[in-house]
Amino acid sequence: MSRCARERRVYFIEEPIVHDGPDRLEVTLSTEGVRVVVPYLRHGTPDIESAQAAMLRALLDREGIQRYVLWYYTPMAVPLARDLRPLATVYDCMDELRAFKGAPKFLVDRERELFSRADLVFTGGHSLYERKKDRHPHVHAFPSSVDVSHFVKARAAQEDPADQQPLSRPRLGFYGVIDERMDLELLADVAAARPHWSIVLLGPVVKIELDSLPRAPNIHYLGSKSYGDLPQYASGWDVALMPFARNESTECISPTKTPEYLAAGLPVVSTSIRDVVRPYQALGLVHIADSATDFVAACEAALSEPEGERRARADDFLSQQSWDKTWREMSALVARTLERQASVRPVPARDSEYATRKDDFATGE
């Protein structure tokens, strides 16, 4: 959306915050030019969705938005804009949300409605594309990309963050949400098999009990970190991990961290997630293992592989990847959709704007 904001106004509508004060909308301009909209709703609001829908209509009136594209990241947002009349509707499907822990049963119905409303559908990976391609005539796969210039900073020597500095080497690191998609038993077994390895985990613990996390002297939970701090932490790792469980919630994930780890110059060890096996394992860019014994062996192989050769392969792959490229391709598809819609309802596509809403359940790979 930061790329989109270079061309048009972008309103990114966040989750509502329930507070003691009156209902209001807070709109702030991010450093990238995205207008971030946060609804504040008073405690006891009887129908939160209806209240947000009214606030969204008021926002369009207040900002003078008449020609726009609705861009959905979740079917849960359908009731908020059901009465609006956009130039076109985009469903940017990043995950199979119905498979996530805590997903409401009616999410399936809302996704069905969103497919009927959408003019264009994007999927966040090839496995998800295979799952959705027959549900709409205009579905396009856009696997996770990467901001290489940001993560390549990890290849240069950096001062270790204070909370990571005391940890012994080798260090095997992971960043992202720690939830039901993580194979906690695998982590515990790897830590037990190699007690001299430091396993570093960055990110919030969501939807699972803290008591369920494996505990060992060499497993270190350092909490949430900002996007800007990730290269500094990664620069102090020896191997990057993706120890995902193999269950319904991971069948269609396309972890954004895969190309980010590669850009950081790290060897990567992952379980056999389909969108990691293809294309990353096929190109010799990651090690794949599922059992604890095989995972430990893969980490040992990653620790010993020649850095120069590995980075050369990664850089060749990454030279064809960027969020700028992804946005150019998405934007072209949106433009063609607007042209198609204009033949029915002629409105200048160049005057359109995009409104987006954050995903209710998916919180990152």
Proportion of helical residues: 25-40%
Sheet-strand content, in percent, reads 15-25%
Low-confidence stretches: 358-365
List how many beta strands DSSP finds.
15
End-to-end separation in angstroms reads 19 Å
Annotation field: number of helices: 11
> What is the CATH topology classification name of the largest domain?
Rossmann fold
Radius of gyration: 22 Å
Number of domains: 2
What is the CATH C level class of the largest domain, in words?
Alpha Beta
Main sheet summary:
9 strands, mixed
- What structural class do you assign from the helix and strand content? alpha/beta
CATH superfamily of the largest domain: Glycogen Phosphorylase B
**What gross morphology would you assign?**
globular
Assembly state: single chain
Overall mean pLDDT stands at 92
CATH architecture of the largest domain: 3-Layer(aba) Sandwich
Order of helices and strands: EEEEHEEHEHEHEHEEHEHEHEHHHE
Quick take:
With 365 residues, the chain is an alpha/beta fold. It has helices at residues 48-63, 107-117, 126-132, 148-151, 184-193, 230-234, 257-263, 274-281, 292-304, 307-318, 323-342; strands at residues 10-13, 17-19, 24-29, 35-42, 68-72, 88-93, 120-123, 139-141, 171-175, 198-202, 219-223, 239-242, 268-270, 287-288, 353-357.
